Amino acid sequence: MKGIILAGGHGTRLYPITLGVSKQMLPVYDKPMIYYPLSVLMLAGITEIQIIAAPQDVPGFQRLLGDGSRLGLRLSYAEQDKPRGIADAFLVGAEHIGDDAVALVLGDNLFHGPGFGEILRSSARDIDGCVLFGYPVGDPERYGVGEVDAVGRLLRLAEKPAAPRSNLAVTGLYFYDNDVVGIARGLRPSERGELEITDVNRTYLERGKAEFVQLGRGFVWLDTGTHDALTEAGQYVQILSRRQGVRIGCIEEIAWRMGYIDADTCHRLGLALSHSPYGRYLLEITTAEEKGE
């Protein structure tokens, strides 16, 4: 399975902060926002990942992450000259996807919860159709919404409904088989001139190939696209770090724990960042591993 991070757009809800920098480069506590969606794909077992961004923002991501080899990844970059909807990512990234299945995650989404990595890896195995991830919210009218039956089977999808029939928002994480490229090519743009991801998902639902995984109690899903949400996400990450010693979205640690790099490599990456608490954390966990603590 290939991975795509959609990090395009202008971040207008965060103006004036994003007038000079990509939204996905803004800090969420101790690391750039894009580390969080990247960590999701890494936890899913995906190592070939393309980052899609506006032309002026691609060089910044390349400076930050390079070709991914230091993390045992293969990263590539593609330009989206203007926002054309989430589903446009499959057209921009068609060559990257090739004949494989694909996971798409939005660049401003943060996920955290118990056993999340295993849920991701299980959902990505032998995918036939699409897998959507639902999360209960208090304001479902702001999102794409999934309606399920008594056993959790997906019945309907609605995009920002005025009268939602469910409180289950469709999050910014999607798994698809290779048919998604052809489906995206056949979409009609919306009135806004965009290719809507809900139309892609409805196509799979009509084929009887849409699975809906509910992220319930104990999970956190945050869209960091507004000033308040960005602040709240940073506070959430900070609290977990200070009280539990848990660092969400630490891509070097995930690369090590997933076996993409070894402990020595992770330690060296920590040394390069050792003037920061983030770097010292990497040194601490690799040193503890060496001592068998």
Automatic annotation (TrEMBL):
This is Glucose-1-phosphate thymidylyltransferase. Catalyzes the formation of dTDP-glucose, from dTTP and glucose 1-phosphate, as well as its pyrophosphorolysis. One of its GO terms (biological process) is polysaccharide biosynthetic process. SUPFAM superfamilies: Nucleotide-diphospho-sugar transferases. It catalyses: dTTP + alpha-D-glucose 1-phosphate + H(+) = dTDP-alpha-D-glucose + diphosphate. Keywords: Magnesium, Metal-binding, Nucleotidyltransferase, Transferase. Its cofactor is Mg(2+). GO terms for molecular function: glucose-1-phosphate thymidylyltransferase activity; metal ion binding. Belongs to the glucose-1-phosphate thymidylyltransferase family. The keyword Transmembrane helix does not apply. Pfam families: NTP_transferase. Its EC number is 2.7.7.24. Residues 2-235 form the Nucleotidyl transferase domain. The keyword Metal-binding applies. InterPro entries: G1P_thy_trans_s, NTP_transferase_dom, Nucleotide-diphossugar_trans. It comes from Streptomyces cadmiisoli. Gene3D superfamilies: Spore Coat Polysaccharide Biosynthesis Protein SpsA, Chain A (3.90.550.10).
